[in-house]
Amino acid sequence: MAWLGKRDAEAETQADPEPGAVSPHGTLRVVPANEASWEDLQTVMGTRGDAHDCQCQWFKIRGTDWRDVPREERAARLREQADCGHPDSPTTSGLVAYLDGEPVGWCAVEPRTAYLRLLKMRTPWVGRSEDPADDGVWVVPCFQVRVGFRRMGVSGALARAAVEFARERGARAIEGYPMVTEPGKEITWGELYVGPVSAFAEAGFVEVAAPSKRRRVMRLLLQELPE
Fold first, then answer.
1. Predicted TM-score of the model (pTM)
2. What domains can be seen in the chain, in order of their start residue?
């Protein structure tokens, strides 16, 4: 299963054009991580920096245990969770984006209950009445886009694909906890691992809470609740 679209030279934090628009950047294709190779996923994670060190385990590992899990073990866990190279696998933990065949981005997307640290964090729950044990709610907690391929709409494409990915797997709702970006104010990519508000808004998410000045909770209902 793949999601296709053409992107133009819009920044990650600006509105994306409709899929199919003519683009100098080429064609973006997003696939479940089990349909990508492990080598491609590691290309996205890089050879240094936060993504390389984290291996998308920050929300998976309880805070008290983080220092006890070395990078090599985090990578091994990601490899098992993503199940790369097994297109018939019934499970995976995220999506990989390709630009004209080159692996350029990743986002995690799973039921909210899969993220042990998230369940104990303040951001998802402030001002809300939510059941942390509700596995019908899925989450897009983080993104990684390779240096050299940012500001090309990759995060937006991943967010849109995550919606369809979760919907096809029976999710009742999907949410994220993005950062508010301000025009003219520089933000390091490390801070934007949760994604910008604009990427979620363009995928149909709406704000349901503002737990802090810089963070939002955004949600998209995928199935109507029974009356």
1. 0.88
2. 3-221 (3.40.630.30)
